[in-house]
């Protein structure tokens, strides 16, 4: 038996060029094996449309419903407002969600007024009235605390950039939109890794402790792996799996650059790793970041231009992806000592909920 319920506060992570990322909690997954029942708390990273952010801002500006408490969590409120305005209201359960749900009628009325003011009939038309290219798109970099402390990194970067710490992810720095850090000495030395905010949230969500044993199931290119290693302060053991031979080498290079000596790279399919193997009997946490649809990282897929494309192509692709991801998640849940699993993937919100439905139905 398995019962899955999406609930809890959502958190915004502004990242990438065309999207916002949100974090939701898949809480209370119950897996029964005979008389034994496990309670596993999982995190899911998903994406919502970047085009909806200015709409949300305008709605909040119009109604001014946020108290001082919630203004300090303004980014979180944007994500909840998105769910209220655009159809995921049934999944809201946290205190912040309940606060905004009390204002639902006022918020929807503000959206209706915004449509009138912009002289459009539909929200899809409303998005085109904003100059999306003018919106700020910050750059992010994650400090590798195996090599450098946060304060020293800030002092070094402030010599050249306006930089500040992210309020949500420890050790994550925010830079101006056009900051080019690729050739910076701290990046080349592995003291800092260029990584978006949503990607940086994954290791923090896992929250591994020093001396734990952890599996990173789909590890390449390795940025999340070394982030996990840093959170463990270089102690414990991380088994980083990668199926693709070419990507294994890139993973090894990343681990070496970061100085993550507690990481063991394995060229192996995670699905072939036996939970009954004594070598994995003490694994307490698993990071599962499997292949995604591409819908969350590309504005518009161009599959329809292929000669082989048919109307059923996307559905077939999604069904196969759902079957694989369901199998991977079930496999992760089967490890005997696992306490925490983070399942993160990249999807547009509509495809994410369809994928989740397919996984449950299968």
Automatic annotation (TrEMBL):
InterPro entries: MeTrfase_RsmB-F_NOP2_cat, MeTrfase_RsmB-F_NOP2_dom, NSUN5_7_fdxn-like, NSUN5_RCM1_N, RCMT, SAM-dependent_MTases_sf. One of its GO terms (cellular component) is nucleolus. S-adenosyl-L-methionine binds at residues 218-224, 242, 269, 289. Keywords: Methyltransferase, RNA-binding, S-adenosyl-L-methionine, Transferase. Signal peptide: none annotated. Residues 129-362 form the SAM-dependent MTase RsmB/NOP-type domain. One of its GO terms (molecular function) is RNA methyltransferase activity. One of its GO terms (biological process) is rRNA base methylation. Belongs to the class I-like SAM-binding methyltransferase superfamily. RsmB/NOP family. This is SAM-dependent MTase RsmB/NOP-type domain-containing protein. It comes from Anisodus tanguticus.
């Amino acid at each position: 038996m398995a019962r899955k319920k999406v609930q809890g506060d959502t958190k915004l992570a502004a990242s990438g060029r065309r999207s916002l990322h949100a974090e939701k909690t898949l809480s209370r997954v119950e897996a029964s094996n005979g008389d034994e029942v496990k309670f596993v708390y999982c995190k899911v990273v998903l994406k919502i449309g970047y085009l909806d952010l200015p709409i949300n801002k305008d709605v909040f500006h119009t109604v001014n419903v946020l108290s001082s408490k919630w203004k300090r969590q303004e980014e979180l409120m944007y994500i909840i407002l998105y769910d209220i305005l655009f159809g995921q209201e049934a999944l809201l359960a946290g205190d912040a969600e309940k606060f905004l749900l009390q204002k639902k009628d006022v918020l929807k009325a503000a959206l209706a007024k915004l449509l009138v003011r912009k002289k459009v009939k539909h929200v899809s038309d409303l998005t085109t009235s904003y100059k999306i290219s003018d919106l700020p798109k910050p750059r992010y970099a994650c400090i590798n605390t195996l090599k450098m402390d946060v304060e020293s990194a800030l002092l070094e970067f402030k010599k050249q950039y306006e930089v500040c710490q992210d309020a949500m992810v420890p050790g994550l720095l925010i830079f101006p939109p056009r900051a080019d850090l690729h050739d910076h000495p701290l990046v080349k030395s592995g003291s800092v890794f260029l990584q978006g905010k949503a990607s940086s949230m994954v290791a923090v969500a896992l929250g591994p402790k020093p001396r734990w044993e952890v599996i990173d199931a789909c590890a390449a290119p390795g940025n999340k792996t070394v982030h996990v290693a840093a959170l463990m302060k270089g102690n414990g053991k991380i088994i980083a799996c990668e199926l693709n031979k070419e990507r294994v080498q890139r993973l090894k290079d990343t681990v070496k650059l970061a100085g993550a000596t507690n990481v063991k790279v394995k060229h192996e399919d995670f699905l072939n790793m036996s939970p009954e193997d004594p070598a994995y009997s003490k694994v307490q946490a698993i990071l599962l970041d499997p292949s995604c649809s591409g819908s969350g990282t590309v504005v518009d897929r161009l599959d329809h231009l292929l000669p082989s494309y048919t109307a059923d192509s996307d559905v077939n692709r999604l069904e196969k992806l759902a079957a694989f991801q369901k199998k991977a998640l079930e496999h992760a849940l089967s490890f005997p000592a696992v306490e925490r699993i983070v399942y993160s993937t990249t999807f547009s919100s509509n495809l994410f909920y369809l994928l989740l439905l397919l996984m449950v139905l299968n």
